[in-house]
Amino acid sequence: MKKSLLGLLLCICLSSSFASSAAEQLVSIFSRLTTIQGDFTQTVYAQKGQVISVSKGTFKIRRPNQFYWNVNTPMKQLTIADGKNVWLYQPDLEQVTESLMTKKIGQTPLAILSGSSEALLNNFNVVKNSTNHFSLTAKTINSNFHKITLTISGGSPQQMQLFDSLNQKTVLAFSKVGVNHSLNKNAFQFTVPKGVDVIKA
Protein backbone atom coordinates (compact mmCIF):
# COMPACT_ATOMS: atom_id res chain seq x y z
CA MET A 1 0.00 0.00 0.00
CA LYS A 2 2.84 2.35 0.92
CA LYS A 3 4.58 1.59 -2.38
CA SER A 4 1.40 2.27 -4.33
CA LEU A 5 0.84 5.56 -2.49
CA LEU A 6 4.47 6.59 -3.11
CA GLY A 7 4.07 5.84 -6.82
CA LEU A 8 0.87 7.93 -6.98
CA LEU A 9 2.53 10.87 -5.26
CA LEU A 10 5.51 10.59 -7.61
CA CYS A 11 3.21 10.66 -10.66
CA ILE A 12 1.43 13.74 -9.30
CA CYS A 13 4.73 15.51 -8.68
CA LEU A 14 6.04 14.64 -12.13
CA SER A 15 2.80 15.80 -13.79
CA SER A 16 2.97 19.11 -11.94
CA SER A 17 6.61 19.49 -12.92
CA PHE A 18 5.89 18.87 -16.62
CA ALA A 19 2.93 21.28 -16.57
CA SER A 20 5.04 23.96 -14.92
CA SER A 21 7.84 23.37 -17.40
CA ALA A 22 5.44 23.67 -20.35
CA ALA A 23 4.06 26.96 -19.02
CA GLU A 24 7.56 28.28 -18.45
CA GLN A 25 8.60 27.29 -21.97
CA LEU A 26 5.60 29.03 -23.52
CA VAL A 27 6.18 32.15 -21.42
CA SER A 28 9.83 32.09 -22.47
CA ILE A 29 8.84 31.96 -26.17
CA PHE A 30 6.44 34.90 -25.84
CA SER A 31 8.85 36.91 -23.71
CA ARG A 32 11.13 37.12 -26.76
CA LEU A 33 8.34 38.60 -28.89
CA THR A 34 7.63 42.33 -28.81
CA THR A 35 5.57 42.51 -32.02
CA ILE A 36 3.83 39.96 -34.27
CA GLN A 37 2.17 40.63 -37.60
CA GLY A 38 0.91 38.71 -40.60
CA ASP A 39 -2.16 37.29 -42.35
CA PHE A 40 -4.76 34.93 -40.91
CA THR A 41 -7.45 32.55 -42.12
CA GLN A 42 -10.17 31.73 -39.60
CA THR A 43 -12.28 28.62 -40.20
CA VAL A 44 -15.19 27.67 -37.94
CA TYR A 45 -16.33 24.02 -37.85
CA ALA A 46 -19.57 22.58 -36.47
CA GLN A 47 -19.68 19.56 -34.14
CA LYS A 48 -19.69 17.08 -37.03
CA GLY A 49 -16.84 18.80 -38.85
CA GLN A 50 -18.72 20.73 -41.50
CA VAL A 51 -17.42 24.24 -42.24
CA ILE A 52 -19.66 27.00 -40.91
CA SER A 53 -17.64 30.03 -42.00
CA VAL A 54 -14.28 31.13 -43.37
CA SER A 55 -12.85 34.63 -42.93
CA LYS A 56 -9.50 36.16 -43.83
CA GLY A 57 -7.57 39.25 -42.88
CA THR A 58 -4.45 40.78 -41.39
CA PHE A 59 -3.24 41.32 -37.85
CA LYS A 60 -0.68 43.29 -35.86
CA ILE A 61 0.23 42.80 -32.22
CA ARG A 62 2.44 44.75 -29.86
CA ARG A 63 2.85 42.97 -26.56
CA PRO A 64 1.42 43.49 -24.08
CA ASN A 65 -2.26 44.22 -24.74
CA GLN A 66 -2.19 46.06 -28.06
CA PHE A 67 -3.61 44.48 -31.19
CA TYR A 68 -5.08 45.22 -34.61
CA TRP A 69 -7.31 42.47 -36.05
CA ASN A 70 -8.71 43.33 -39.49
CA VAL A 71 -11.18 40.96 -41.18
CA ASN A 72 -11.27 41.67 -44.92
CA THR A 73 -13.55 38.89 -46.16
CA PRO A 74 -16.35 37.93 -46.31
CA MET A 75 -17.56 40.88 -44.21
CA LYS A 76 -15.26 43.69 -43.10
CA GLN A 77 -14.72 44.06 -39.37
CA LEU A 78 -11.92 45.76 -37.45
CA THR A 79 -10.95 45.27 -33.81
CA ILE A 80 -8.29 47.50 -32.23
CA ALA A 81 -6.98 47.56 -28.67
CA ASP A 82 -4.59 50.20 -27.33
CA GLY A 83 -4.02 48.61 -23.92
CA LYS A 84 -6.90 50.43 -22.22
CA ASN A 85 -9.79 50.45 -24.69
CA VAL A 86 -11.12 48.08 -27.36
CA TRP A 87 -12.94 49.23 -30.48
CA LEU A 88 -15.02 46.92 -32.67
CA TYR A 89 -15.80 48.66 -35.96
CA GLN A 90 -18.41 47.19 -38.31
CA PRO A 91 -18.46 49.32 -41.49
CA ASP A 92 -21.57 47.65 -42.95
CA LEU A 93 -23.56 48.57 -39.85
CA GLU A 94 -21.90 51.98 -39.58
CA GLN A 95 -21.24 51.47 -35.90
CA VAL A 96 -18.38 51.16 -33.43
CA THR A 97 -18.59 49.40 -30.08
CA GLU A 98 -16.16 50.86 -27.56
CA SER A 99 -15.34 49.10 -24.29
CA LEU A 100 -12.72 49.03 -21.58
CA MET A 101 -10.20 46.20 -21.54
CA THR A 102 -11.01 44.03 -18.54
CA LYS A 103 -9.79 40.82 -17.04
CA LYS A 104 -12.07 38.98 -19.46
CA ILE A 105 -9.78 39.93 -22.32
CA GLY A 106 -7.24 37.61 -20.72
CA GLN A 107 -9.54 34.68 -21.45
CA THR A 108 -9.77 35.34 -25.20
CA PRO A 109 -7.57 33.62 -27.78
CA LEU A 110 -6.12 36.88 -29.05
CA ALA A 111 -4.98 37.74 -25.53
CA ILE A 112 -2.79 34.64 -25.51
CA LEU A 113 -0.73 36.24 -28.28
CA SER A 114 -0.96 39.83 -27.10
CA GLY A 115 -1.35 39.59 -23.33
CA SER A 116 1.14 39.53 -20.51
CA SER A 117 2.79 36.35 -19.24
CA GLU A 118 0.97 36.85 -15.93
CA ALA A 119 -2.42 36.86 -17.68
CA LEU A 120 -1.52 33.71 -19.59
CA LEU A 121 -0.54 31.82 -16.43
CA ASN A 122 -3.55 33.13 -14.48
CA ASN A 123 -6.12 32.06 -17.07
CA PHE A 124 -4.78 28.81 -18.52
CA ASN A 125 -3.16 25.54 -17.54
CA VAL A 126 -0.44 24.69 -20.08
CA VAL A 127 0.68 21.26 -21.27
CA LYS A 128 3.27 20.59 -23.99
CA ASN A 129 2.12 17.91 -26.43
CA SER A 130 5.23 17.82 -28.61
CA THR A 131 8.13 20.01 -29.64
CA ASN A 132 5.98 22.67 -31.29
CA HIS A 133 2.52 22.04 -29.83
CA PHE A 134 1.00 23.33 -26.58
CA SER A 135 -2.45 22.71 -25.08
CA LEU A 136 -4.05 25.40 -22.94
CA THR A 137 -7.05 24.62 -20.75
CA ALA A 138 -9.10 27.46 -19.26
CA LYS A 139 -9.03 27.64 -15.46
CA THR A 140 -12.54 29.13 -15.28
CA ILE A 141 -15.77 27.81 -16.76
CA ASN A 142 -16.69 31.34 -17.87
CA SER A 143 -14.01 31.34 -20.54
CA ASN A 144 -15.28 31.49 -24.13
CA PHE A 145 -13.04 28.57 -25.08
CA HIS A 146 -12.36 25.69 -22.71
CA LYS A 147 -9.39 24.38 -24.68
CA ILE A 148 -6.88 25.91 -27.09
CA THR A 149 -4.01 24.25 -28.92
CA LEU A 150 -1.16 26.40 -30.14
CA THR A 151 1.47 25.52 -32.74
CA ILE A 152 4.77 27.39 -32.58
CA SER A 153 7.43 27.22 -35.29
CA GLY A 154 10.62 29.23 -35.54
CA GLY A 155 9.68 31.12 -32.40
CA SER A 156 6.40 32.46 -33.81
CA PRO A 157 2.75 31.26 -33.77
CA GLN A 158 1.60 29.30 -36.82
CA GLN A 159 -1.81 27.97 -35.81
CA MET A 160 -4.40 28.03 -33.03
CA GLN A 161 -7.29 25.61 -32.59
CA LEU A 162 -10.07 26.76 -30.29
CA PHE A 163 -12.75 24.52 -28.77
CA ASP A 164 -15.88 26.11 -27.25
CA SER A 165 -18.62 24.83 -24.94
CA LEU A 166 -20.76 23.79 -27.94
CA ASN A 167 -17.93 21.57 -29.22
CA GLN A 168 -17.41 23.82 -32.20
CA LYS A 169 -13.85 24.23 -33.39
CA THR A 170 -12.26 27.40 -34.72
CA VAL A 171 -8.93 27.15 -36.51
CA LEU A 172 -6.74 30.22 -36.92
CA ALA A 173 -3.97 29.64 -39.47
CA PHE A 174 -1.28 32.33 -39.62
CA SER A 175 0.87 33.08 -42.67
CA LYS A 176 3.52 35.63 -43.69
CA VAL A 177 4.27 36.00 -39.98
CA GLY A 178 6.90 38.55 -38.98
CA VAL A 179 8.11 39.12 -35.42
CA ASN A 180 9.86 41.97 -33.64
CA HIS A 181 9.43 44.38 -36.54
CA SER A 182 8.96 48.09 -35.95
CA LEU A 183 5.30 49.12 -36.08
CA ASN A 184 3.83 52.57 -36.60
CA LYS A 185 3.02 54.17 -33.23
CA ASN A 186 -0.49 54.92 -34.50
CA ALA A 187 -1.19 51.32 -35.53
CA PHE A 188 -3.24 50.72 -32.38
CA GLN A 189 -5.16 53.99 -32.33
CA PHE A 190 -8.71 54.23 -33.62
CA THR A 191 -10.43 57.32 -34.99
CA VAL A 192 -14.19 57.09 -35.33
CA PRO A 193 -15.21 57.75 -38.96
CA LYS A 194 -17.73 60.49 -39.68
CA GLY A 195 -21.35 59.41 -39.53
CA VAL A 196 -20.61 56.26 -37.53
CA ASP A 197 -22.57 55.54 -34.33
CA VAL A 198 -20.55 54.86 -31.18
CA ILE A 199 -21.92 52.34 -28.69
CA LYS A 200 -20.37 52.30 -25.21
CA ALA A 201 -20.26 48.78 -23.81
Q: What is the structure about, briefly put?
A:
This protein is an alpha+beta fold. It has three helices and twelve strands.
Please describe what this structure looks like:
This protein has 201 residues and is α+β, with helices and mostly antiparallel strands. It is 21% helix and 46% strand. The protein has a twelve-stranded mixed sheet. A hairpin with a 5-residue loop joins β1 (35-45) and β2. The longest helix has 30 residues, at 2-31. Residues 1-19 have low confidence and may be disordered.
Please give the structural blueprint.
Layout (H helix, E strand, L loop, with lengths): L1 H30 L3 E11 L5 E12 L3 E8 L3 E5 L3 E6 L4 E6 L8 H6 L2 H7 E5 L4 E6 L6 E9 L2 E9 L4 E11 L17 E4 L1
Parallel strand pairs: 6-12
Antiparallel strand pairs: 1-2, 1-11, 2-3, 3-4, 4-5, 5-6, 7-8, 8-9, 9-10, 10-11
